[in-house]
Amino acid sequence: MPQDRNALKSRAREVIATSNPRVLTVGLVYLVLTVVLSTLGARVMSVNISESEAMNYLNYAMNGNYEYALRYAETMTPPPTAYAINALLMFVAAIVGAGFTIFLLNTLRNRQPCFANLLDGFGFWWKLLILDLLQSLLIGLWSLLLIVPGVMAHYRYAQALYILIDDPTKSPVQCLRESKAMMNGHKMELFKLDLSFLGWYLLEMIPYVGYAVQVWSVPYVGMTKALYYETLLGSNVWSYTPDYPA
């Protein structure tokens, strides 16, 4: 059954306004954690290059000594350990992101949502890792055929994370298959829902201002997509009457 985008977004705002703990507060903690992790990753990957070193590289390149220039450039790139640490930090951020999704679903379902939900993804982190790798591989392979097949693959597997969160005993492959079946006939619908958030996505890209925008946009978009997943399951999200403590 087609879903009303405006109704879903309106319902998301209602849930955010009545939640306890507040979705915006937990979302802020999530954002702070991701900013810290990304900052650490950037610091690990950064290379301090002096002006004289940069000039030496340019001189080698301009004088036609490309082989030496290439070797000189290699000495200024981050070591392999930096890439490994950065990848680990990015994965930890992804786990925390899964934890935020768990919190959103618990909020919708009145299942004692709490700040600790942000760490719940560590309980099945290996499956999250495998799912992320398989999903990225599949989308990447379809993207080789052109942009449209890649976009379709992205939406085909869009519910895999939610499915794994709902039942961590399932294998990542099973979650991908179930997402494919669940999204049959709904890919364009979810694409249009994403498109309706385009203004927020553009505001997020503004330096510094984007961080302030994300305090609202990340929980708002996340809650709307969690509601969308619930409707795909057949849940009546319109009849929810949260009984949160004062």
How would a textbook summarize the main sheet?
none
Q: Could you estimate the helical fraction of the residues in percent? A: over 70%
Radius of gyration, whole Å: 22 Å
**Mean pLDDT level:** 86
Structural class assignment = mainly alpha
String of helices and strands: HHHHHHHHHHHH
How many individual β-strands? 0
Strand content: under 5%
Distance between the termini: 36 Å
Task: Enumerate the spans where pLDDT stays under 50 for 5 or more consecutive residues.
Answer: none
Q: How many helical stretches?
A: 12
Number of domains: 1
Q: Characterize the overall form.
A: globular
SSE order and pairing:
Blueprint: H1 5-18, H2 23-45, H3 51-62, H4 66-75, H5 80-109, H6 125-143, H7 147-156, H8 160-166, H9 172-182, H10 187-195, H11 198-204, H12 209-233
Helix pairs in contact: 1-12, 2-5, 2-12, 3-4, 5-12, 6-7, 6-9, 8-9, 11-12
